[in-house]
Design a protein that fits this description.
Elements: E1 4-8, H1 21-33, E2 38-41, H2 53-67, E3 73-76, H3 82-92, E4 99-103, H4 112-124, E5 130-134, H5 136-139, H6 145-151, E6 157-162, H7 167-176, E7 182-185, H8 188-196, E8 201-204, H9 211-222, H10 226-242, H11 250-258, H12 276-288
Parallel strand pairs: 1-2, 1-8, 2-3, 3-4, 4-5, 5-6, 6-7, 7-8
Site (L-lysine inhibitor binding): 49, 80, 84, 106
Subcellular location: Cytoplasm
InterPro entries: Aldolase_TIM, DapA, DapA-like, Schiff_base-form_aldolases_AS, Schiff_base-form_aldolases_CS
């Protein structure tokens, strides 16, 4: 079962926009040392929208190489074209990934039966486990619980990343899914409650910055230690908030840069560095948390 603290890894870049593979290696080692259970490479936080296919594959391949078998790597393979998503999955499976994260098609607003056919085609072509990713705040289209129930019958579809932040949705999903289907939060502010109410883990942006705390939070929450889980979550609640005061991954990259884990906070256009007020706000918190 896919569970625990899974980082939605940022992709470091140099001032000219090239991928900074030296910093990528440092980030992978950082997560291995701090108890992260798995890495999602080139998802939304990894700027998948602005990496061409060749570069997308290269970043995933190098992440697998740097992981040295010590931590599973899950590739972001989503697209709003089914044929493109299948092709991307085919390319990724040859580099040693442990699974694929496939987002609900964005912008074209497919019907539920269209999404079922889309993910079925991806899973039919897959040789590794597929994680569905529902994030209507970005995609507009919302994968219904009923559609998840249908898709969960496919042997290659093993998990859902739910980024709705709606804990009522979790109860719907639990009622219609088998115990071996992984339910993962994709919303850091509600991730603790998600796990305390039966979720199996998180695919986390905050884990980029405090991987050890996120690992400890997941262990406490999934083992039913509510007091400890809530104590840890309270200690990073403001970090959850400040990492999203500008669109992800703007603030996580700024934090990693200030922490010395990236050479620069560069983002691919149309994303740009945070404004001065946002920079100062996050830096103040990082200082309070003794991270810089």
């Amino acid at each position: 079962m896919i569970k625990g603290s899974i980082v939605a890894l940022a992709t470091p870049m140099l001032p000219n926009g090239d991928v900074d593979y030296a910093s990528l290696q440092k980030l992978v080692q950082f997560h291995i040392a701090n108890g992260t259970d798995a890495i999602v490479s080139v998802g939304t936080t990894g700027e998948s929208a602005t990496l061409p296919v060749s570069e997308h594959v290269s970043v995933v391949e190098k992440t697998v190489e740097f992981a040295e078998g010590k931590i599973p790597v899950i590739a972001g393979t989503g697209a709003n074209s089914t044929s493109e998503a299948v092709e991307l999955g085919d390319l990724m499976q040859s580099v040693g990934i442990s699974g694929m994260l496939s987002v609900v098609p964005y912008y074209n607003k497919p019907q539920q039966r269209g999404m079922i056919q889309h993910f079925t085609a991806i899973a039919d072509a897959a040789d590794v486990p597929v994680i569905l990713y529902n994030v209507p705040g970005r995609t507009v289209a919302d994968l219904s619980s009923e559609s998840v129930f249908v898709l969960a019958e496919h042997q290659n579809i093993v998990a859902l990343k739910d980024a709705t932040g709606d804990l009522n949705r979790l109860e719907e999903l639990k009622a219609g899914l088998s115990d071996d289907f992984s339910l993962l939060s994709g919303d850091d502010p509600t991730g603790c409650e998600f796990m305390l109410n039966g979720g199996h883990g998180v695919i986390s942006v905050t884990a980029n910055i405090v991987p050890k705390l996120m690992s400890e939070l997941c262990i406490a929450a999934t083992s039913g230690n509510r007091t400890l889980a809530m104590e840890i979550d309270a200690s990073i609640a403001e970090l959850h908030r400040k990492l999203f005061i500008e669109p992800n991954p703007v603030m996580p990259k700024w934090a990693l840069y200030k922490m010395g884990l990236m050479q620069t906070p560069h983002l691919r256009l149309p994303m740009v560095e945070p404004d001065k007020e946002s920079q100062a706000s996050l830096e103040e918190l990082l200082q309070e948390m003794a991270l810089i």
